[in-house]
Amino acid sequence: MIEARRLTKRYGTKVAVDQLSFRVRPGSVTGFLGPNGAGKSTTMRMILGLDTPTGGDVTVNGRPYDHVRAPLREMGALLDAKAMHGGRTAYNHLLCLAQSNGIPNRRVDEVLGMVGLTQVARKRANGFSLGMGQRLGIASALLGDPGIVMFDEPVNGLDPEGILWIRNLMKQLASEGRTVFVSSHLMSEMEVTADHLIVIGQGRMIADTSMRDFIETNSQAFTVVRSPRVEQLRALIEGKGASMSPEPGVEGSFRVHDLPPTVIGDLAVEHGIALHELSPRFDSLEEVYMRMTRDSVEYRAGVPDGSPPGDGASPGRPHSGAASVGSRSMPRSTGSEG
Question: Which residue(s) pair with 308 in the sheet?
Fold first, then answer.
């Protein structure tokens, strides 16, 4: 388990992390979310002992990580895929890490196979694409078969096959009782991968809760309807004091707010209106996240119409929780990004 207690980091007058307290527990994938400049990378560096806290402390299985004799056996991490000697081959890079942590040499071949780099094991890392570098970094994190893994933006540079592979890998590791801590800006990936969320903004805690509770508690519930007699249905819905607006990105579908789906269905039956869709929905993780972190965005870019980014809505989806992984074996990848 990773545990932070009032963890604080200052750089001069800048407070990068402000008294964060949280636990990352085994058996689930914990997503670590926040805008650029929120303090996520600084927090991860303090977990690894690469940065020294100004206040508070953070431990891995009850001890500071830099006090562990064979750290890769305890926790594997990927913070920067480029943090390796480019003149070494993928095999030799992993071999050096294995020998310094008392890990058998055979494990090098095993993890190279897991991440799909067996065919390029003897090639120098400085010739790798971004995606191949990510795979090698993930192999480094898995090398010691640790009980805890921590990834910062693990899908950077991966192709669709690679994204699916790393998603299934994280779920599989969690199903084996390991602790998985992952930071990402890809909300769509986090929504289908993470079981729990820690959300920070400007170094402070915003939320520490399950994925389901984060979405349902902070969501604006609505119902998606589709009908060949939509204008007649609209008049009935508005007559009940509710509003109806187009469903973004889905032609012919509409969102109804402030009216339960049962009432909408009864109205349609009463007036003989066919319904082709009647779906209760919650906002997507992206919509909830943008709303929750709007005041914490430090680096805000302009958009052509002059409105602040993040005000548009993306299609909501039913929230079904994390999918299970059927196989007990660690997922393998057969390809690498060119």
Answer: none
CA distances from 129 to 82, 89, 152, 325, 332 (A): 10, 14, 18, 29, 19
Structure tokens given for 241: 């004091």
Set out the domains of the chain in order of their start, with CATH numbers. 2-216 (3.40.50.300), 222-281 (3.30.70)
266-297 confidence digits (pLDDT tens): 999 999 999 999 998 888 898 888 888 887 77
CA distance 191 to 213: 12
CB distance 203 to 41 below 8 Å: no
Alpha carbons 209 and 213: distance in angstroms, whole number: 6
∠ CA 158-159-165 to the nearest 5 degrees?
Answer: 75
Tens-digit pLDDT profile for residues 64-90: 998 888 899 999 999 987 777 878 899
pTM: 0.79
